[in-house]
Amino acid sequence: MTENTAADTLPGPAGTCANPGDTTPSQAPESDVRGATKAVPQGAHKGKTRPPKSDVMPVLEQLAALYPALFGAQFLPLKRGIFQDLMEAHADTFEREDLKAALSLHTRSTRYLVAVSSGAQRHDLQGTPVEAMAPEHVHHALLEVFRRRQARTPDDLRPKLRQRIAQVFLASGMSAVDYADLVRSRDDETNALLDEALADAQAQAAKSEALQRAYSTSGKTVEAFAAMYGLDPQAVARALAG
User: For the segment 89-98, what is each residue's pLDDT rounded down to a tens digit?
Assistant: First the structure.
């Protein structure tokens, strides 16, 4: 059974899809890294009626039974267009609006956003990876997961978030300027955290490059090189491998 509890979902969070068939995280929210997203003005969703959560839970249970690899105990990021694929495969099983509402709830769950923020690829109905997750989608999902978790703890989670942003940036293969342009929001604190993370990543990359050069010119084994600089051999080996 798919566990989409009220604690795991927020109405219209950033990093979730407005179109359930898209499953693409949206642009960064207009909120700082300390709190939840801004409240939706009253009446903003007027004219958009969705089935109550209790009505879509049976649909989520059916999806988990049909596709346990995607909707079961562990969620996987869904390919864009998954709604159309499901309707074509199960036209007699699901009502169109019920399926839309179920996918909307599913892709707004914290567990789904965690899957997206991991950088895992998007998957089709067979559970096959079919498309890389765009860096900006990973980034926005990461921010939303952080906001939800930060709201539940007095601990400052920003250092961990900064570290994860740096990892996502390095995995993207983009320049710091291009990555910042892609994910920068209108929130000053979020942008400051982004700049710090990019600076950390660039400093670490420069340090690793210097270590590689020093090792290459030393002509020594990893163990001898580490001993020469008073470094941990295993740490040096990991750095050189990275």
Answer: 999 999 999 9
Fold classification of 6-155 is Fertility Inhibition Protein O; Chain: A; Domain 1 (1.10.1710)
Say what the pLDDT of residue 189 is. Answer: 92
* CATH 1.10.1710.10 in the chain, residue ranges: 6-155
Give the chain's largest Cα–Cα span: 71
- Report field, pTM of the whole predicted structure over 0.90: no
Give me the helices (H) in the chain, please: 53-66, 68-71, 82-89, 96-107, 110-117, 135-150, 158-172, 176-183, 188-218, 222-229, 233-241
- The burial class, CB within 10 Å (0-12 / 13-18 / 19+), for 232 is exposed
Report the pLDDT value the prediction gives residue 211, as an integer from 0 to 100. 86
Asked if the model's pLDDT at residue 55 lies above 90, the reply is no
Please report where in the chains the tokens 């710090």 appear, as a residue. Answer: 196
SS3 track for 179-223: HHHHHCCCCHHHHHHHHHHHHHHHHHHHHHHHHHHHHHHHCCCHH
| Whole-number Å distance between alpha carbons of 42 and 44 | 6
Q: How far apart are CA 70 and CA 64, in angstroms?
A: 7
Q: 3-class SS at 35?
A: coil
H/E stretch holding 122 reads strand 122-123
